Amino acid sequence: MPTRRREPSGGAPGTRFLPAILRARRPEARCGLTLLELLLAFALLLFSFVVLITAFQGAGRETPFTNEHFTAMFLAQKVMEDITQRVAENPHFFTELIRDATGERVPVVDGRSKYFRLLENTRNFNLLLPEEDEPIVRGDLYEQLKPFQVQVATKWQPDPLTGEMRRNLVLVEVTLSWVSKEGFAREYRLAQFIHGTCLDEFAEEPRVVISPAARQRLDEQAVVALANLLASDVPELAGARPGQFTVADLVRHSPGASPEALLEVGRMIALIDGTLARDDRITAGMIPLEQERDALRAYLEKSAKNAADREACLRFIDLQRQIGGIYEEKGVAHVSALLVLIRSLPALAAIFRDPSVLGSRVSLYTPYLLAILNGSEELANLAVLSFSSAEKCYISMVSPPVISVLPRRKEPAYLRKAIDIQKVGILMQQKDGEAKDLLKDFTRNLDLFWKKYRGQHPNFTAFLETEQRLAASLSTLRSAYAGIWKAFRAIDRISDEATRIRRSVPARYLGR
């Protein structure tokens, strides 16, 4: 009788053919989905599909708004680009931008806005004459831009240290507004900082504003200058460095001295001797540049090579630009130092009338201090000479035939430098007769430049037109740039002031 095979203990019928891994599952584990789970999954799928359809429908309704928004972004960017380009190519436009302040909101089309005018002219971007600058008055582009209005506003920016408004930095905000097809008012704004110089500043009295940090450096240099002066009598002051000694140390070595009087004459020494020493260093550094420039000039003058040798011409222009810039930098440094010194002349005059306020030791150096004061006259002459040298360099860069090798797009930038430095030359001249002769040459150049570049560089010709208006007469030019003219007039009188101070010194202080 066959023996029946027994199932393993704890096994279930029919499980002997299943893999061991399945046989090991817990009794409550099961496979498949219930009807309820299938219904829930279908409901979720249906809900997601409805939400997706609604989202696509909403996106379709907002498409016109999105297109308008991107159009506004494009227009705002074009306006900002136009403003920055105008300021770069026509510095007077910064003044116009400031005076507009919060501009009027005007339509983009129909020539109502003065911005992105080149965008409106689609026929000929290379040659733009005033009569060709036609506004957008019809067509598809007109219909696209008609809903938009533009407004440009400017805001002065305060200095983070002093809290005063910075006259050379403004925040420009361009606002594009429109009404969407759904009837909603929309706006897009774009803001950017723009740096420039407002013409109104030139008409103001020359101001010398020294920051607290600059004043501290000047006072430290004043102490060093006086310490070096006394070093021959007081060896411990030899080799003084900024911050090593204080004015109290000087008073100790010159009993009876007024600390403020010592600082005043120390500042005079630092300003005059320091500026002259810096001038010598800069002049020495210019020698290689001037030698190369002079060699190139001699080369170009032979057999009309200046018209043929483009590479040599461009190098000559670059050298003149560098040298002219250095001369201009020197002139600005001289004028700045002299303006600071001029503010101190009344105090210096009182000190030299009674040098005893410098103390028993420093007062013995009164003749030396007067010699330093005489250096102010040399500094004034160097200021005039520096600007005159810069003018010659800049004028040579735009004189025929050298200018013929300049890239066309760079010509206005070089010409603006020549124009600006010519103005300085006129304003430096205190004699009316000579100033009027210089003004005639200046206005003749402006007219020549305007005729040459009219229609080719609209921003540059706008600059020239403003210059022509300002240079209509010597009085209008001096009025527009009264700050510069009065600064040079004050510098021109510094020699007389120094002479009066020397004559006021008591004889007993002049013997050493």
Write a concise synopsis of the structure shown.
The chain has helices at 20-23, 35-89, 92-100, 117-120, 140-145, 199-202, 212-230, 247-253, 259-300, 310-353, 359-362, 366-397, 411-428, 432-453, 458-470, 474-480, 482-492, 494-504; strands at 106-107, 149-158, 165-179, 185-195.
Summary keywords:
alpha+beta, 512 residues, globular, single chain, disordered N terminus, 4-stranded antiparallel β-sheet
Task: Please tell me about this protein's structure.
By secondary structure, this protein is α+β, with helices and mostly antiparallel strands. Among the domains are: 51-202, no CATH class; 272-406 and 481-509, no CATH class. 61% of the residues lie in helices and 7% in strands. It has helices at residues 20-23, 35-89, 92-100, 117-120, 140-145, 199-202, 212-230, 247-253, 259-300, 310-353, 359-362, 366-397, 411-428, 432-453, 458-470, 474-480, 482-492, 494-504; strands at 106-107, 149-158, 165-179, 185-195. A 4-stranded antiparallel sheet has the order 1-2-3-4. Helix 7 (212-230) crosses helix 9. The radius of gyration is 39 Å and the shape is globular. It starts with 19 loop residues before the first helix and ends in an 8-residue tail after the last helix. The relative contact order is 0.08.
The total strand number stands at 4
Largest sheet: 4 strands, antiparallel
- Shape descriptor: globular
Oligomer: single chain
Helix content: 55-70%
SSE arrangement, N to C = HHHEHHEEEHHHHHHHHHHHHH
Helix segment tally: 18
Portion in strands: 5-15%
* Average pLDDT score: 81
Distance between the termini: 151 Å
For the biggest β-sheet, the strand order reads 1-2-3-4
Judged by helices, strands and strand pairing, the structural class is: alpha+beta
Low-confidence stretches: 1-31, 49-64, 118-128
Instruction: Output the radius of gyration.
Output: 39 Å
